[in-house]
Inverse folding.
């Protein structure tokens, strides 16, 4: 009964909601446009086409910084796999290598094993906090200068500009309805060819991080490379071509979570690319401004030339204030500076600034910049602590290690003469680049004997084992306590392994149990 | 709620959806076209799944899809690949002698790994997953062996079993001295106490151990030997050590003597191939008790 009532309530509730949102308004409308029914709203379409952005070329400080960082980032990405690092015979000689089949990660002098992947956790913490730190100092530095999406899009725009001309020409060519001439067709073909070439090289460089680069390049060009390499090159060629050639600013606006996150992370002291409206408003023409100034009136510096909009790679107007779409690349600063110097007004009408200083200037006070404040100190401290801890653990990590697992079933075995034996699975790790001869020892019950299955002891009770370089060895180790020394309760056993050549040692502790 | 049909946000100039929370209105922002296209493409793609893969449950089966895909067939392919990868190594294991397997670290590791899984599948029901045994089922970790603890002896026992009915099986059993009327009840109790004394266990007062020794000499030495040290040829256990298959208390010993014992170990030849049996022999030997 109760259930039925609930069901009816729920059903009616759903029905009424359904009616309220879709049926009633439509039924009340006298003239129903079929298009509105599809869009679900009569105030606009459900979706909108992308408005193509035609960024204009610009020169200046920030453009130079971006060129420099682009060259740096791309060089690192494309050429790093070819950097060599000598690790001795038999070991890979590539400085940065992710060796998936052998489960090893090489980074110059560092070699990480799968069980040390926790270092990446530290790296991710440092990377995340470094983003926060950048954000609290200078806004979206990552987005504007370093993000691969920005770097490759900028490169693709440069190619486009080189072949098809600057903003106006490109707009004119795209808008033209005349039948295409050979020149225009060849331009389009050339542009896409170069884009695809860059995209292909991007995919090609990616796979080189997973295999010996010179060997793989030779294999790839002779079509003898592994299929998986070609597949990954194909995938990355496609994503690079699409994301940098077509999606562009839409990746930042619609796909990336960072614009939203950074809005929550910023504070009143963070410097962002800002239109200084205290100086810019009210906007007038150059001529009118000169006239009004001559009369001693207050006029803004902005001459409404729209250069900041023309150069913007995301197609926004920075003068509308901080916007989610703004990647803060600083190109509008360059564009505005060029105009300001031409009309003889001071530069940096657009610059890295914040609202506090705009208000202070409006009140006639000097601006204050607070790079060092609680937030940046905390972020810096987190980076220092996590980074320091990582360096410490990396510097002190053992190249010889031992793990011991006591047999769980049976925990102890009684032998025919009454003595007690415990069995252990021992894993020895040799992370060094050379084979080791290891002496194994276990100290627990008095006069206990130690035996390793499959190993004839040379020295009594100290079995010798050879572990090849860069591998682990699993051993079955038996500790037997004579009947008269049989401990009544569980006592600790200390396992001790030593490289007899180098004297390097490692130890661990487990228990010896009686049945 | 305001009429959203004509509600324009004064700051942005955009229309709103009419939804308002504490004075904050939601702007009516259209989705990007590519997003909508991608969304419909994924729906279209999902329909493709229905057609090419098994999807719809029927009464006793399901639609098979035009690709004829089945996860079971995938497993069969994977298993065949596994056998192919293992092939050479298992051949090497089958070819090597038992002693050589234990000396070669690579073969030992393979035999132990293989032996462990096969043991879990076939032997664990009686001997336990860690081979610790139970009453009547020997603990294979210790150094006390009914039929011998060398690699070859272990291999033989696994291959042909004990009292298994196989032509080459281990034979010999503990007779039911009481049931068959060979020994009288008081003789059984006396010899049981004598057997306890053999391994240094306490005996009940009032029983003549000398008489027990006499009964033992007349009935038991044929299999268990003069000093009760046992005989691995016959599977007769050593009665002087600290390990008891069925138990060392008086009641259990009386039961053993009067009812007899004849535990069965099945023969694994024919059920498992030779390489697998070898792996298992090495595994059991390496548990720690191997001779």
């Amino acid at each position: 009964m109760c259930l039925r009532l609930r069901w009816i309530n729920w059903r009616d509730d759903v029905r009424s909601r359904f009616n309220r949102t879709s049926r009633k308004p439509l039924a009340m409308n006298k003239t129903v446009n079929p298009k509105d029914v599809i869009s679900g709203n009569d105030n606009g379409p459900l979706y909108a086409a992308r408005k193509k952005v035609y960024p204009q070329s610009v020169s200046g400080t920030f453009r130079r910084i971006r060129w420099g960082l682009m060259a740096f980032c791309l060089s690192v990405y494309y050429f790093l796999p070819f950097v060599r690092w000598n690790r001795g015979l038999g070991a890979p000689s590539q400085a940065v290598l992710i060796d998936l089949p052998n489960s090893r990660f090489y980074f110059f002098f560092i070699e990480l094993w799968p069980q040390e992947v926790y270092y990446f956790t530290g790296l991710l913490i440092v990377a995340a906090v470094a983003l926060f730190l950048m954000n609290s100092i200078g806004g979206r530095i990552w987005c504007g200068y370093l993000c691969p999406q920005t770097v490759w899009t900028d490169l693709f725009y440069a190619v486009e500009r080189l072949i098809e001309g600057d903003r106006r020409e490109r707009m004119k060519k795209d808008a033209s309805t005349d039948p295409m001439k050979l020149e225009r067709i060849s331009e389009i073909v050339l542009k896409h060819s170069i884009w695809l070439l860059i995209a292909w090289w991007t995919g090609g460089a990616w796979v080189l991080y997973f295999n010996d680069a010179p060997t793989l390049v030779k294999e790839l060009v002779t079509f003898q490379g592994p299929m998986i390499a070609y597949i990954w090159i194909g995938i990355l060629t496609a994503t690079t071509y699409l994301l940098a050639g077509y999606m562009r600013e839409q990746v930042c606006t619609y796909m990336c979570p960072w614009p939203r996150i950074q809005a929550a992370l910023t504070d009143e002291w963070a410097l962002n690319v800002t239109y200084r409206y205290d100086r810019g408003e009210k906007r007038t023409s150059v001529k009118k401004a000169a006239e009004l100034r001559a009369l001693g009136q207050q006029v803004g510096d902005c001459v409404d030339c729209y250069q900041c909009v023309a150069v913007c790679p995301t197609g926004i107007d920075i003068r509308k204030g901080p916007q989610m779409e703004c990647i803060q690349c600083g190109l509008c600063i360059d564009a505005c500076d060029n105009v300001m110097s031409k009309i003889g007004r001071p530069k940096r009408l657009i610059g890295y600034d914040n609202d506090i200083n705009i208000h202070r200037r409006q009140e006639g006070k000097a601006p204050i910049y607070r790079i060092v404040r609680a937030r940046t100190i905390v972020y810096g401290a987190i980076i220092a602590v996590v980074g320091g801890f990582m360096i410490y653990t990396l510097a002190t990590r053992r190249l010889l290690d031992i793990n011991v697992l006591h047999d769980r079933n049976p925990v102890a075995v009684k032998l025919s003469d009454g003595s007690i034996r415990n069995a252990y699975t021992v894993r020895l790790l040799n992370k060094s680049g050379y084979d080791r001869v290891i002496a194994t020892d276990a100290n627990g019950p008095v006069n206990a004997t130690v035996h390793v299955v499959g190993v004839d002891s040379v020295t009594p009770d100290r079995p010798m084992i050879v572990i090849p370089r860069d591998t682990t060895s699993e051993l079955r180790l038996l500790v037997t306590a004579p009947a008269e020394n049989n401990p009544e309760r569980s006592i600790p056993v200390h396992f001790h392994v030593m490289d007899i050549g180098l004297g390097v040692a490692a130890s661990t502790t487990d228990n010896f149990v009686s049945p | 709620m305001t009429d959203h049909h004509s509600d324009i946000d004064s700051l942005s100039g955009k229309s709103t959806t009419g939804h308002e929370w504490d004075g904050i209105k939601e702007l009516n922002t259209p989705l990007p076209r590519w997003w909508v296209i991608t969304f419909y493409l994924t729906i279209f793609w999902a329909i493709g799944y229905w057609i090419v893969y098994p999807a719809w449950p029927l009464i006793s089966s399901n639609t098979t899809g035009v690709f004829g895909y089945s996860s079971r067939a995938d497993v069969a392919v994977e298993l065949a690949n596994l056998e192919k990868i293992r092939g050479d190594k298992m051949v090497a294991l089958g070819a090597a002698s038992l002693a050589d397997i234990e000396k070669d670290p690579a073969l030992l590791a393979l035999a132990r790994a293989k032996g462990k899984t096969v043991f879990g599948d076939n032997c664990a029901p009686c001997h336990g997953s860690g081979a610790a045994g139970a009453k009547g089922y020997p603990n294979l970790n210790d150094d006390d062996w009914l039929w011998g603890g060398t690699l070859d002896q272990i291999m033989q026992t696994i291959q042909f079993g004990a009292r298994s009915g196989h032509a080459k099986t281990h034979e010999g059993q503990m007779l039911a001295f009481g049931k068959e009327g060979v020994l009288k009840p008081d003789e059984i109790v006396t010899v049981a106490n004598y057997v306890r004394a053999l391994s240094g266990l306490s005996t009940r007062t009032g029983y003549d151990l000398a008489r027990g020794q006499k009964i033992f000499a007349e009935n038991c030495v044929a299999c268990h030997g003069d000093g009760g040290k046992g005989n691995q040829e016959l599977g007769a256990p050593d009665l002087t050590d600290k390990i008891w298959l069925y138990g060392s208390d008086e009641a259990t010993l009386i039961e053993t003597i009067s009812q007899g014992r004849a535990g069965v170990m099945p023969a694994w030849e024919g059920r498992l191939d030779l390489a697998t049996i070898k792996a298992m022999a090495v595994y059991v030997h390496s548990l720690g008790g191997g001779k």
Remarks:
- The first strand of chain B starts at residue 16 and ends at 21.
- DSSP finds eleven helices and three strands in chain B.
- The beta strands of chain B are 16-21, 24-27, 31-32.
